[in-house]
Amino acid sequence: MTVETKTNGKPHVNRIGLTSQDYRGGETTLCQGCGHNSITSQIIAAAFELSLAPHQVIKMSGIGCSSKTPAYFMSRSFGFNTLHGRMPSVTTGAVLANRTLLAIGISGDGDTGSIGLGQFKHMVRRNVPVVYIVENNGVYGLTKGQFSATADVGQTLKYAGTNVLPPIDICIEALAADCGFVARSFAGDAKQVRELLKAAMSFHGTAVIDIISPCVTFNNHHDSTKSYDYGKAHEERLQDIQFIPRFDEVHIDYDEGDERYVQLHDGPMIKLRKLGRDYDPTNKWHAIELLERARQNHEFITGLLYINTQRQTLHETMHLTSTPLAYLSEEELRPSRERFERVMQRFM
Amino acid sequence: MTHVIETETQPRPLDDLESEPIVNDFSIVAATVNGSGSQTANNVLMRAIFKMGIPVSGKNLFPSNIQGLPTWFIIRVSKDGYTARRDTTEILIAFNQRTADEDLASLVPGGVCIHPNDVKFTNPRSDVFFYPLPVRELVRQSGADAKLRDYIANMVYVGAVAELLGIDMNEIKAALERHFKGKSKPIALNYGVVVAAAEWVRANLSKVDRFRVEPMEKTQGLILVDGNTAAAFGALMGGMTVCAWYPITPSTSLVDAMTELAPILRADPVTGTTTYAIIQTEDEIAAAGIIVGAGWAGARAMTATSGPGLSLMNEFVSLAYFAEVPCVIWDVQRMGPSTGLPTRTSQGDVLSAYYMGHGDTRHVVLFPGTMTECFEFGYLAFDLAERLQTPVLVLSDLDLGMNNWMSEPFTYPEKPFDRGKVLTADELERFKDWGRYKDLDGDGIPYRTLPGNPNPRAAYLARGTGHNEYAIYSERPTDWQQNLDRLTRKHNTARTLVPKPIILDDELANIGIIAYGSTDPAVREAGDILRARGIRTAYLRIRALPLEATLTDFLAKYERVYVVELNQDGQMAQLVQLHAPEYAARVRSVRICNGLPMTAQFVVDSIMRAEQAKRE
Ligand SMILES: Cc1ncc(C[n+]2csc(CCOP(=O)(O)OP(=O)(O)O)c2C)c(N)n1
Ligand code: SF4
Ligand SMILES: [Mg+2]
Q1: Which of A109, A277, B72, B545 could be bridged to B61 by S-S, CB 3.0 to 4.6 A?
Q2: What angle do CA A30, A34, A35 make, to 5 degrees?
Q3: Which residue in chain B has the smallest CA separation from A341?
Q4: pLDDT, tens digit, for every residue of B535-565?
C-alpha cells in the first residue's frame, strides 16, 4: 500500500482522496444486530479500500430488509431499489446502458431464491457484470417471519412452524448457471466478507456471494442453522482469503505449497491459503460436489468456492461499443441520410 | 362510390354479367394451407399489381399454427385507393380442399373460382365461373425437387391469376427477383412455373368472367411496408440503444425487423461494434426490467410485446411511472387472453394500457394509424418518454403491424432528439436547490441526473417507495400527496405534448366519427359511402392519450358522435365520455370484436341503423 494513504497505520484517505466517511450512507432502519448491517459495514470498508469512485457505482436491490440496505451505504452513489426478485433485469439494463458502471446488487434469500430465481439464473447465464450479494437469513424478514426457500429441513419458526422442504442452495444454482465467481460467507466473519467483496468488485462478470446473515428478530434462536451462534460454532473456512490490489507491491512466493494465487482481470490477485482441506476453486465439479456433501452433512462451508475468469461478459458477447450507450451523442445515434436511404430502397 | 355499394349488396343476374368489365375494383382471396409457402405467391401477386400503379392492400388471416391449418390472404385491388378489408370476395383461389366449400359459398355471384382440378366442391355453384388447373402436372413438368413441389404449386395460381386478370408478367418476374434477392436458380424455377401455368390457361381455358386489371398511375413513388418494420426503422432512427424482448405474435416481427435493419443503420461498418443492444430475455418481466434499468441509466430503451406480455410488465410499468423512468413499450395488440385468438387483430388493450399499474397510474399512449405514423412514433415515443420521464406505450395491432400497406415513402427525421431535462455535472452546479423529484418549472417534470454523473450532489436512490422531492425515503402524508399532485401536473403537461388528433372536416357534417389506429382506412371509406348516401360526417382520429381539448371541441360540434373500435366494451368510447362528461350523452359506440380488421360496411351499416332509428 502506498505510504500517503496511511497515518499511524490507519488509512484516513484512500487513493482518490476520500475518507471512509465518504462511503457511508443514511442511518440504518433495520433491527439492531441484524446481519445485514454487518454486511453493509463491510461493503463500505471494501469500497473505501478499493478507492471506488462513488459516482461510478450503482447500488441495486430487490425488495426485502436486505434490499433496503443500499440506502445505508455509499450515499454518493446512484442506486435503484427495484421490484421483488427483479433486480437482476434492472441491473442488466443499467449496465447495458452504461458499461463503465460498477453494479453492486443486494438481494435476500426470498428475493433471489424464490420470486427472483429465474431472473437470477438468467443474469448469471448472461454473465452480467455485477457483484451480486445475497443476504441469506433463511426467512422473510420484511414480511415478518415466513420461511424462505433456503431454510434447512426441520427448521422451526415461531410464525411458520416446521420446514419440511429441501433448501435451495444459491451457490449451487449459481454454479449450475455457469457463474464465474461463487462464494459463501458469514456476516459474523467480517474479514472474509470484506476480502471476498473486494475480489468480487474486481471481477469481470457476475460474482455471487451468498452471505449467511442472521435475522435477529425472526430466525436467530439457538437451533436455527442461520443464527449467529450456529454460524460461529460451525463455520468451516475453506481458505484464508486475502485480496491483493494491483497497486500493492507484493512478493509472491509461488513455492509455498499451502498458498495459491488467483489472478484477476487488470492485475489484482486473490491469495488463498489452505486451511483444513485440499480444495481447488477452479474446478466446478469439485465445487458442486463439496456443496452437495455440505448440504447432506449439514456442514457450513465458507470461502471462495469457484472462480473462472475466462467467460465472456455480456458486453463482450454483444459486441457493444466501448462508449457507454447512454453517452452516445445524437450524431452517433441517428443514422446518416445515406444509411436511411439504403433502408428506404428496400421498401421501394 | 355508389358503384361499390351496389356490387356488394345487390346480387346481379347472371345474364348481364358479360356486359361491362370490372376493372381494378375487387378482392382476391387465396385460400391455402398454413405452412405451404403460399406467402411468397401472395406477395408476388400483390406486388405485381401494386407496381402496375394500381392501389392494393394485403391482409393475411392466418391461424395460430405452424403447418396444416387453413389460411387466407386477401388482396384488395381498389382503383379508388381504399385499403380496408371487405367482406366480399370476387376472386377465390381455392387451394385448400378442407375449406373449399365454405370458401366457395362466400364468393359473390359472378365471382371467379380458380382451383386445382383435384379439389372437389360438394355444391358447385352455377352463378360463379370455375377455372380448374392441372396443378400436379404443371408442377411435375417444372422438374422441381420433390420437397419443393408444394411450395411451387402456389406459383401455378400466380400464373393463372396473372393470365386471367391481365397482370403484367414483367412485374411478376420483377417481384420474384426481388423476393429471391436476385438468386437466379429459384427465380428461374418459380417464374418457369408461373409462365407454364399462364400458357396452359391461355391454351386451354377461355376467359368468361368480367374482372381484370389495367395499369394506372396511382402508386408511383409509394412503398409497400408493414407497420412492425416501419416501427423498428423509426426506433432505430430515433436512437434506440437497448431493446429487450420476449417472442410473442404479432410483435415478434417488429424485433425481427429491428435485428435485420440495425446492422445497416447503426453498426460500425469496419469494426462491427454496435451502438445498440437487442436482447432476448427469459420473459416479459425481465424485458420490462431491462428497459427500466437502461432508461434509468440514460439509454433509449424499448420493448415490443402483445397483450399477455403486457400484463406481465404491469409491475414494472407502475414502478417506472413512480420512479419516473423513461422507456417505450410497443404493444402490437392481438385478440383476447393468452390463448385467445393470438393471430387475430384487436384493439382490446386501450384501457389496460392507459391505466396500467397500481396506485393511480395513467400513461402516455400513442396510437399509430398509418405506416408513416408507425415510423414516426418509432422515434417520437423516445422523445416523449425522455421529455416526460415516464413509460410511453405505443398501441399498434396485428393488422397494422403484420400486414403490408401502401405508404408515402418515409422522410428523414429532421427534428433533433428531445432528451428531456437531464443535468450534466456542470449544469447541476447552476441548480442550487435541485432535487430529483422537485418541480422547478411548474410543469410537473423534474430534472434528472444519470448514473455516472460525477457531481457529488447528483446521486440519488430511485425507488417506488414513498419519497420526497429530494428522493429521500418518506412516508409523510404530505410528501406522498405532493408527489401525486405533481404527477397529475405532469400528466396534464403530457396532454399538451402528445400528437394532436387528425380531423377530416366537413362543413356540412351533422354527425361526427371518432376512431384510432388500424380502423382508419375503413372509417375513411365509410365516410365516402355515407356521403354518397346523403349522410355527411366529420372524422376525428385520436392519436394519443391523454385526450385533450381538440377532442372536446369536436364533441361540442356534433349532436351524435360515433366512436369506432375493435373491442367488445367500447373502451375508447368510455375514455371519451370520461374526458368530456358534459358531452357523454352524444357518444355512441360502434364496435366489433371478431378478430378481423374493421370493414367500411360495418361502420356504414352501424351508423345508418343508428341514424335511421333516430329519425323514426
Ligand atoms: C411482488 C411482490 N410480492 C410480495 C412482496 C412482499 N415482500 C416484500 S419483502 C418479501 C420477502 C423478503 O424476503 P428476503 O428476500 O429473504 O429479504 P429479507 O427481508 O429476509 O432480508 C416479500 C414477500 C413484494 N414486495 N412484492
Ligand atoms: S426483521 Fe430480520 S432481516 Fe429484517 S431487519 Fe430485522 S433482523 Fe434484519
Ligand atoms: Mg431473507
Answers
A1: B72
A2: 130
A3: B412
A4: 999 999 999 999 999 999 999 999 999 999 9
Q: What ipTM score was computed for the predicted complex, to two decimals?
A: 0.96
Query: Does A322 lie at the interface with B, CB-CB under 8 angstroms?
Result: yes
The three state secondary structure string of A118-163 is HHHHHHHHHCCCEEEEEEECCEECCCCCEECCCCCCCCEECCCEEC
pLDDT digits (tens, 9 = 90+) for A236-293: 999 999 999 986 655 555 545 788 999 998 889 999 999 988 999 999 999 999 999 9
B379, closest residue in chain A (CA to CA):
A334
Q: Does B131 lie in the same domain as B254?
A: no
A340 is a domain residue = yes
Q: Give the residue numbers spanning the domain of A247.
A: 6-347
> How is B79-120 classified by DSSP, letter by letter?
TT---SB-S-EEEEEE--GGGHHHHHHTEEEEEEEEEETT--
The boundaries of the domain holding residue B246 are: 225-407
Kindly report the protein residue whose alpha carbon is nearest to atom 4 of ligand 2. Answer: A141
The tens digit of pLDDT for each residue in A293-338 reads 999 999 999 999 999 999 999 999 999 999 999 999 999 999 999 9
Q: How many A from CA of A135 to the centre of ligand 3?
A: 7
Give the domain-ending residue among B188, B212, B236. B212
Looking from the CA of B62 toward its CB, the CA atoms found within 13 Å total 22
Does B40 fall in a domain? yes
| B417 vs B413: CA distance, rounded Å | 9
Tally the domains of chain B.
Answer: 4
Answer yes or no: is A1 within a domain. Answer: no
pLDDT tens figures, B411-445: 999 999 999 999 999 999 999 999 999 999 999 99
H and E: helices and strands count for chain B: 21, 23
Residue with cell 457529488: B456
Contact B316 A86 (CB under 8 A): yes
Name residues contacting ligand 1 (CB within 6 A).
A 63-66, 84, 108-111, 135, 137, 139-143, 148
Q: Which residues of A touch B374 (CB under 8 A)?
A: none
Q: Look at residue B543 and tell me if it is in a domain.
A: yes
Best of B278, B284, B290 to mutate (most A CBs within 10 Å, chain A) = B290
Do B593 and B447 sit in the same domain of this protein?
no
Atom of ligand 2 nearest to the CA of A219: 2
